[in-house]
Amino acid sequence: MSLPIAPKPAIRRFHQARWDEPVIFELSTPGERGVLVTPIEPGVRDAVGDVVADLPEGLARRTPPALPEMGQMRVLKHYLRLSQENLGADLNVDVGQGTCTMKYAPKVNERIITTPKLAAMHPLQDPADAQGALEIIWRTERMMAEISGMDEVSLHTQGGSAAIWANIAMIRAFHEANGEGEQRREVVTTIFSHPSNAAAAKAAGYDVITLHPDADGYPDLAALKRVLSSRTAAIMVTNPEDTGIYNPAIREWVDAAHGVGALASYDQANANGILGITRARDAGFDVCHFNVHKTFGTPHGSGGPGTGANAVSAALAPFLPGPRVVREGDRYSVREAGPLSIGAIGPFHGVVPNIVRAYAWIMALGADGLRAVAETAVLNNNYLMKRILEIPGASAPYATGRRRIEQVRYSWQELFEQTGVGSEEIGVRASDFGMHYWTSHHPYVVPQPFTLEPTESYSKAELDEYADVLAEIAREARETPEVVRTAPHNQTVHHTHHDDLDDPDRWAITWRAYRRKYPDAVGA
Amino acid sequence: MSLPIAPKPAIRRFHQARWDEPVIFELSTPGERGVLVTPIEPGVRDAVGDVVADLPEGLARRTPPALPEMGQMRVLKHYLRLSQENLGADLNVDVGQGTCTMKYAPKVNERIITTPKLAAMHPLQDPADAQGALEIIWRTERMMAEISGMDEVSLHTQGGSAAIWANIAMIRAFHEANGEGEQRREVVTTIFSHPSNAAAAKAAGYDVITLHPDADGYPDLAALKRVLSSRTAAIMVTNPEDTGIYNPAIREWVDAAHGVGALASYDQANANGILGITRARDAGFDVCHFNVHKTFGTPHGSGGPGTGANAVSAALAPFLPGPRVVREGDRYSVREAGPLSIGAIGPFHGVVPNIVRAYAWIMALGADGLRAVAETAVLNNNYLMKRILEIPGASAPYATGRRRIEQVRYSWQELFEQTGVGSEEIGVRASDFGMHYWTSHHPYVVPQPFTLEPTESYSKAELDEYADVLAEIAREARETPEVVRTAPHNQTVHHTHHDDLDDPDRWAITWRAYRRKYPDAVGA
Amino acid sequence: MTDPHVHPYIPNTAPEVRAEMLAAVGAASVDEFYADVPDGLRLGRALDLPEPFAAEQDLERHVSGLLARNVPTTERLSFLGQGTYQHAVPAVVDEVIGRSEFLTAYAGEPYEDHGRFQALFQYQSLMGELLSMDVVNVPTYDGFQATGTALAMAGRMTGRRRVLVASDVLPAKLSKVRDYVRVHLDLEPVVPVDGTADVAAVTERLGDDVAAVWVETPSRTGAIEHRLQALADAAHAAGAVLVVGTDPVGYGVLTPPAEQGADIVCGDIQSLGLHQWYGGAHAGFIAVHDDPRFVMEMPSRLFGLATTDVPGEVGFGDVAYDRTSFAHREEGKEWVGTAAALWGIAAGVHLALMGPQGMRDLGEVLLARTAYAQRALAAIPGIRLTDGAAHLREFAIDVAGAGLTANGIVDALRAEGIEPGVPAGEHELVVCVTEMTSQRDIDRLAAAITGLVAASAAESADTLDTVAIPEEHRA
Amino acid sequence: MTDPHVHPYIPNTAPEVRAEMLAAVGAASVDEFYADVPDGLRLGRALDLPEPFAAEQDLERHVSGLLARNVPTTERLSFLGQGTYQHAVPAVVDEVIGRSEFLTAYAGEPYEDHGRFQALFQYQSLMGELLSMDVVNVPTYDGFQATGTALAMAGRMTGRRRVLVASDVLPAKLSKVRDYVRVHLDLEPVVPVDGTADVAAVTERLGDDVAAVWVETPSRTGAIEHRLQALADAAHAAGAVLVVGTDPVGYGVLTPPAEQGADIVCGDIQSLGLHQWYGGAHAGFIAVHDDPRFVMEMPSRLFGLATTDVPGEVGFGDVAYDRTSFAHREEGKEWVGTAAALWGIAAGVHLALMGPQGMRDLGEVLLARTAYAQRALAAIPGIRLTDGAAHLREFAIDVAGAGLTANGIVDALRAEGIEPGVPAGEHELVVCVTEMTSQRDIDRLAAAITGLVAASAAESADTLDTVAIPEEHRA
Ligand SMILES: Cc1ncc(COP(=O)(O)O)c(C=O)c1O
Ligand SMILES: Cc1ncc(COP(=O)(O)O)c(C=O)c1O
């Protein structure tokens, strides 16, 4: 064959890197060192003697920990190989993780934070030495306040679910401060709100009431009114819900809650579709949070650290976690939590590198840019929905014929009925094309669900590629279902057997447990 | 199947990442932007008007360059995908690039240089503002002087071949300064010295005489003496040669050259095996160079920038390139090249980030560490040689039964005679196992050659893995030669047709040339 | 977006594409997509935000300019600890967690995210070796959360409410833990003696309503608990769970709590390869024995080994996923979500680099420098150590005898570029040393405080002069 | 290595492995491997090097401590150019070239190093678009080398010796090029007029012994050559090659030399996405038309497109490898070796990010700021521009009329944290502005120089006072 190069086929011929690396313990060689520790100075040694021998009885470790012994390059190589065996948003068309799709985390923000001026700051340093950090925290809080419409903001939490916990913790403290702590024992949420709302409320001691949508998939106001009472502490809802449907009666929901003396808490973890369009305050909410790692472009770090921005009305402000950054003139300082505060929700000021990234992200976009984010996210979502609904066997239950905001919960029910190939199998097969794919939280209210959320970050060509891949898999499900069922084929590893993972006698959560449970295993 | 996990097979089941990315121009979408340029201030625009319209006739570009238009994340994604389709020393057991094998380039050195304190330095800044950079250059020169035994060092060149050019340029200047420029028109080298010695000498205007080794593969002193004369400008030799054989008569070679008034230039690009053992000065050389990117742990950057360290005797010092860093008391300053200097060999002080990396590398090891580098490199090499020679069909021509220094040029001649599978095919197949493999410089004096150089960086287990892979391919050559011949199978791309590359009518060195030559090609 | 606003982060702001997409979905404008958002809820104006910096170079100059106002510990001499520690971070750690593939990944499956699963399984396993425990979670947010959850687990397992807090705990940690568990558990402090737990008092307070004994080692002031086994025995005798909050940094030399009867070991991994980040790099571990009663109470994800269709391939998956709120909403254990996986990967790389010898050397240098600093400061007239326990990394000094206050020392030494420690009372200063603190650094601190003490002595002598001796009696 | 010395960079220093390997090869000690190194050549002592820092934290502190003595352009106001330029480097560029896979790769085959081949083919192609040329090399060391080689190519192609140097060239570049080609070529300067080439004089000197006309645009002082086509026509009429040395940064707005008759275009790509690195980040490009007479004279590697066994797969390989010294030692063209590939990858990423609009915007902002700076400085009494040509990024001022010297200005302004430019003669100062230099920056420079001029005027008035007026005549 000679030039020119033939056209590429419609679908990318992907294969993920496969290094077949063993578990790191199998790479150990006695005596190798990965990094050396600074030596104890002779002067110190002379002064203190053998500190290990001098430890109180029983405190000196007898057998060294069985960590691997490896040269530095081998450790590096092992982890670089593993990294190639991982998709990040930077590598794939990462629209298949809705409700948690990753947008672009700009590289310039990585460069900005990579400086001792941030990484080598101790949180208890003289505030005079931390004016840059404090000012950025303060400014970011103020910008989040404007974006949410709320009065005060805390950036302390390290994830969306932690922020939801902070929401319910503040609500609990509020009712207690009002003497209604004992009385208000219920929290109302909806089945298409993120499960952490239900779970955090339960962890905070509340009984959880979960509402299902009306026939059209809209949150059911009448159902809400039926369950609200003087026992209600709060409603905790996501909007748009996981279906991508915006609750047009959200103001009425909030009013109804307020009507019984309950508070209204808004999980707007993912506010991509509504930035600059509508705000928590506009619907009357008392408290809300953003996932900074979803809405404000900080990277997701393989599952954290994230950052939650808790925004509250003035009435709730005294309950925010501490310490707080305060501005006096053009100086910034730190104030301990006040008497009503729920106290520390974590160490110090939250995930500071993320706060700086988020600050930079907002400052790269401004008001117009944020609005462009929202408009493009919904445009992308509705475009992708059109492409998906063209695939025979795919549907978008509820709110038929209506637009969605930033994501859609789809269903392969029809395809499943026709072929027996289900959504989870399709998801595994999608990895063969270099794509992530996620079904839904449990329970699967939408049958054979999948949830796509394009955000603003992916180009039309990429959305088309994603849709093409799903169309191809749907075709395979009809024509060559075995290919789907036995997937993956082009992946780092092959079909994995998960039956050991639920059996306490057989699971292996660490290498040492594995070696103990399977003494005859090779390498063990 | 359930736990435990079965033993891994002897050979890693590798597959390189395959993203099937098009050429970047095919990813263009009109209107997308990758990065924005800072705007012209209104005040500037008011003052200067339309600068483009005001350009002299014909100077304003009429049609914009047909660069792709892409969002930032898509550019990033494209290049990250390409990066996964590349092996670096950090990823593979990179012992198959002898004579140019890559050792470990420590990550801490990347962290050290990644600071505006180095990256944002302009070379013409006030030397008072550049004391750190100047001191590191000065110290590195001094350390290289000690390591080579020579008197003065320049770190200006950006590669080993550039350093060889600097060597011959200095030699030429030296003879000219002595009035012998016209007379000395010949340079002598050996066939197992790096080809850049011959090529640079030719480029400098010399006739090149290339000597072959004696029957045992040792450099042939008698042959040298036969060609030396008053026309000889220099001998330019590598030692140990590409075969890994150290010339035991190297002192006699140098003396013989000196005997006819010629200079002796030592290509010790790769001094891995002899650091702290023996030095250029000890054998009487006038000039030598190190490849800092081979011997001193700087990364190879996909083919540069490297750094050459040219080290010379006092007699040659006046000919070193300029400018020079000089120390006065504890201050460092810059002195322009003197009258005998060959002048600038490149801009300013050379590849400064590499100089800092090399400084850090030496300072991490010290004299004992450098000696450990050498001893371990030769131990690794002789160990690997043992493993390779156990493979039926492999041999190490010359110096039979003797040890080698840091590398060996092997031969598959026997295997080739038995199977018809040659070294280049084996090299392609090696990539299926995640390994680089290099044959030899041309001409192939050793038939069906391959050259391995383990350096000090790879563990015994890794050397074993490399040997196991070659043994496996040798087995395949006998048992399933088609597998080798049609390789690669587990690679980013498949067997590639290189016939267009030598035909001016068909080659395509840029995308625009491709589109012009193949107007019907898709994407073109 | 009234005006076309093409932004590098938002490819489909390119006008042609935008128009094409609108046409494809049959929408006249983006506004149609917001049909469900009532007019009354629309903001109806632009957000009031600062002017942005669209050009990367301008953005960088702005934010870096703000950060340039920070003066980090690399430019100060810092003895600050109390939750965040200045340890050496090997460059390889940063390299690995800076890889796009790890940094920007989220929640893929064990196929396309095999690397993440393996890296986190290895983190669990490496921590398991360090702690001598068979089960370690994918990290939760921080050591505060880990401790709150560990106690909540004990509460659920025992169905009891009382928790005996046997050690001195960081106030912020106590605040978080208390608020976290207060619906389910009551925390009762049992005042320590000479820095460590009062075993007798704890034993006395134990009863069949005690869910857990909570020990912190090192304690708030760095004291190492040396009677864990006795505490464990007492707790177990009462049917209570021994929860040990700890910093894993010392277990290259120290006996891990699991070998002295701990049931749940928890804490923070910031010391294992994470920079200080102004307190912004914490992650919590919870370790238990391989006992399903404990494991099934853990809310975090747990990655486990699995086989695949291909012999010898190492596969992974979620262990006992049904525990989680992902699977069962409020019926799961607490909740799970985005936590601190990247820091877990970092800690794993760090432990792999350190190896047994590195962790041993580190532990030893920490013990030695701590002891050295204790001696150096206690040698200053009027300054004494607050307890006689063995200490790791932190210890408290009482400066009352020198006529100084903790805040006074801090204020005075900050002027010299030294952060001498964290005040924990009028006269108590908690001083922290790590492997980054050299002998010279400690000597400098001691000299600076000695100078203060001398100055204060001189001053009080003066004061004595002027105050105690009436004018008429003076020479 | 008399003592066991286990180093993290050298795994097989681990004593057990070392012993095992020695045993495997049947050697009693490492010394056996050096049998061929005569005793007389053995160093026989340890190298005399400074004490190393084996612990990474100590190494980092040491080297970073040295670097901390640098005061970079981010902390100064810099108008320095003359070969190295302060341009914005998008973070994505650094991310890509920082990837281990690219950073540590060397010379793999088009299979396992497919990514490198594609990235460099794309670099060639992107440069080709910018320059309107069909062939671009994998970068050589720097613009100096590229120019030397370009002229050498012209010499080989024409078999002639004379080269007319029609522009003002940086002295260091001239030094390198002259030494590089002097065996084969003689460089003859033809003095420019008002900043650009004297076309008439060049034409007059042309003859059938002229191998090449060498034009630099922008010139040493940033002047843009505006009669390239006339020079090309004249050169071609004489059978000579037109070699244009240039900085590609302006070709978003400027007509590329290839469209005005250039045969070989060459220069440096430091301006395309590389940091300044104290002058340590240069790479040279050589571009020609797709004419084998030219292509076959190029010494560098050239990557070309190729098909594979699989339709639609994009393959790569070396074009005309037989040209190279790798293939034919001294019979190849000059030589090839490790050059500057990584910087080429960087420049490719940079051009892809910039796109046509970015390069246009950049060119425009450079022209505008240059013009603004010219006006601002020329408006200062006694200061004038040295020529009337259009300038890109750099221009020279003559400060004689203000009674100042170039060095005097530099010394005075450095004290204020300003690097005002590079002296190029007693009274000539070459000033450089880029997109990193804001209007405010330029105004600050102008104000500072205005201040100097005023001071000097005042001083010379003073001097006039003190010198011209004899003591006895003064009031
Ligand atoms: C709507 C919503 N709420 C809450 C969460 C939980 O956030 P996190 O994963 O940060 O805990 C998510 C993301 O998963 C979400 O999409
Ligand atoms: C012995 C020897 N000399 C010279 C060179 C050329 O060095 P470079 O590739 O840096 O030009 C090499 C490496 O290829 C080499 O091994």
From TrEMBL, chains A, B:
Q: Tell me the GO molecular function terms.
A: glycine binding; glycine dehydrogenase (decarboxylating) activity; pyridoxal phosphate binding; transaminase activity
Q: Which Pfam families match?
A: Aminotran_5 (PF00266), GcvP2_C (PF21478)
**One GO term describing the cellular component:** cytosol
Q: Which Gene3D superfamilies match?
A: 6.20.440.10, Aspartate Aminotransferase, domain 1 (3.90.1150.10), Type I PLP-dependent aspartate aminotransferase-like (Major domain) (3.40.640.10)
Output the InterPro entries linked to this UniProt entry: Aminotrans_V_dom, GDC-P_C, GDC_P, PyrdxlP-dep_Trfase, PyrdxlP-dep_Trfase_major, PyrdxlP-dep_Trfase_small
Enzyme Commission identifier(s): 1.4.4.2
Which Gene Ontology BP terms does the record give? Answer: glycine decarboxylation via glycine cleavage system
Instruction: Give coiled-coil spans as residue ranges.
Output: none
Aminotransferase class V domain location is 153-328
User: Reaction(s) catalyzed by this protein?
Assistant: N(6)-[(R)-lipoyl]-L-lysyl-[glycine-cleavage complex H protein] + glycine + H(+) = N(6)-[(R)-S(8)-aminomethyldihydrolipoyl]-L-lysyl-[glycine-cleavage complex H protein] + CO2
The answer, when asked if Nucleus is one of the entry's keywords, is: no
Q: Check the record and name the SUPFAM superfamilies matching this protein.
A: PLP-dependent transferases
The chain positions of domain Glycine dehydrogenase C-terminal read 374-486
Summarizing the function annotation, the protein's role is: The glycine cleavage system catalyzes the degradation of glycine. The P protein binds the alpha-amino group of glycine through its pyridoxal phosphate cofactor; CO(2) is released and the remaining methylamine moiety is then transferred to the lipoamide cofactor of the H protein.
Q: Which PANTHER family match?
A: GLYCINE DEHYDROGENASE (DECARBOXYLATING), MITOCHONDRIAL (PTHR11773:SF1), GLYCINE DEHYDROGENASE, DECARBOXYLATING (PTHR11773)
Any idea what this protein is called?
glycine dehydrogenase (aminomethyl-transferring)
Q: Which species is listed as the source?
A: Agromyces kandeliae
From TrEMBL, chains C, D:
One GO-annotated biological process of the protein:
nucleoside metabolic process
Task: Note the Gene3D superfamilies from the entry.
Answer: Aspartate Aminotransferase, domain 1 (3.90.1150.10), Type I PLP-dependent aspartate aminotransferase-like (Major domain) (3.40.640.10)
InterPro entries in alphabetical order? GcvPA (IPR023010), GDC-P_N (IPR049315), PyrdxlP-dep_Trfase (IPR015424), PyrdxlP-dep_Trfase_major (IPR015421), PyrdxlP-dep_Trfase_small (IPR015422)
Q: What is the main EC category here?
A: oxidoreductase
Record domain Glycine cleavage system P-protein N-terminal: where: 9-447
The highest taxon in the source lineage is Bacteria
One Pfam match = GDC-P
* Alphabetical keyword list: Oxidoreductase
Please state the Enzyme Commission number of this protein: 1.4.4.2
Q: Which GO terms describe its molecular function?
A: glycine dehydrogenase (decarboxylating) activity
SUPFAM superfamilies (alphabetical) = PLP-dependent transferases (SSF53383)
The name of this protein is: Aminomethyl-transferring glycine dehydrogenase subunit GcvPA
Q: Which organism is it from?
A: Agromyces kandeliae
